[in-house]
Amino acid sequence: xxxxxxxxxxxxxxxxxxxxxxxxxxxRTFAAMGVYGCSVITALTAQNPRAITxxxxxxxxxxxxxxxxIFDYFDVAAVKTGxxxxxxxxxxxxxxxxxxxxxxxxxxxxMVASSGARLLDAGAVDTLVHALLPLATMVTPNLDxxxxxxGETVTDQEEAARRLAGRFGCxxxxxxxxxxxxxxxLDVLCDADGQLHHYRHARQPWGEMQAHGTGCRLASLVTAxxxxxxxxxxxxxxxxxxxxxx
Length: 246
What we know:
Blueprint: E1 8-16, H1 22-32, E2 36-48, E3 51-57, H2 60-73, E4 76-81, H3 87-100, E5 104-107, H4 122-132, E6 138-139, H5 143-150, H6 157-168, E7 171-174, E8 184-190, E9 196-202, H7 208-211, H8 214-227, H9 232-243
Parallel strand pairs: 1-2, 1-4, 4-5, 5-6, 6-7
Antiparallel strand pairs: 2-3, 7-8, 8-9
Helix pairs in contact: 1-8, 2-3, 3-4, 5-6, 8-9
């Protein structure tokens, strides 16, 4: 079911104790966009914008129960994934989504925290690539994550976006926020048909707290826009316009 005519969006990821990223940032963004947000927790974290000091995984049984509780009741228009922890958690999530979800799936392939903590090992990346990404409507890597998925450093943002879209058969929003310092940043969207779209925006003079969780917020904005019926190009444009205000 939907609630009072609002689309339902589900975020699957880690809980951020400082509230700037993860589930908390996603739900805050969903609320700002006027969609109803549900959540499935993969892990509890003790963190602030500078460091993750502890990660407590949610059991696979609890994860499976959370997912089924949502899909048994709600008509989920769009799903966004973030921190997925390890291969076992990704396998459970992929299996349930393949069975129960027919709407948009936006995968934010969270591999390294902004604090530098590694969040996915090689086995988990392999499961992500072979189990979850084939289900995706859009993948939203930054330059570092794209390099892991491609197995080489990204030197050409457009070519990298094209290669990833061709490999996974979905739209790819390659975020340029990790590029070398410049006044303007470039995000490149390659849609499922191989068409490129460019989104340029000024680098924001944000402090530590505001910069924490930027990838989560952008992917959540895209998810909410797609839940409202926008196609990837329109959803990213709407997200980019709204992003500076969140």
